[in-house]
Amino acid sequence: MRIRVHVTPRRGVLDPQGQAVAHGLSNLGFSGLGEVRVGKVVDLELTSESDPEAALATARKMASQLLANEVVEDFSVEVLG
After folding, report:
1. Is the pTM of this model over 0.85?
2. Checking CA distances to 73, which of 16, 17, 24, 64 falls within 20 to 30 Å?
3. CA-to-CA distance for 23 and 74, rounded, in angstroms?
4. Nearest to 37 by CA among 64, 56, 65, 16
């Protein structure tokens, strides 16, 4: 079963990478940008799970223990198939 984990900086947490991207886009002539946040996507293939709910629970546990720093990041998980 394929799972996707989205990890993003929490609201209110400084995102220097997002600020750098916003600055770069502005320098390239793109206007009308609000806040830019940069996160990461982790795709997992869980070969031992066939039940979507069990796969989501396993992925949430993986995200909370390793993939995301829950002090400064939020995460969401979704089943891809």
Report:
1. yes
2. 24
3. 24
4. 16
Instruction: Express each pLDDT in 10-57 by its tens digit.
Output: 999 999 999 999 999 999 999 999 999 999 999 999 999 899 999 999
Backbone angles phi, psi at 7, to 5 degrees: -120, 125
Architecture field, domain 2-79 = 2-Layer Sandwich (3.30)
Residue for token pair 């400084």: 14
Q: Residue ranges of the domains in the chain?
A: 2-79
State the CB neighbour count (10 A cutoff) for residue 6.
16
Alpha-carbon distance of 64 to 60, in angstroms, equals 6
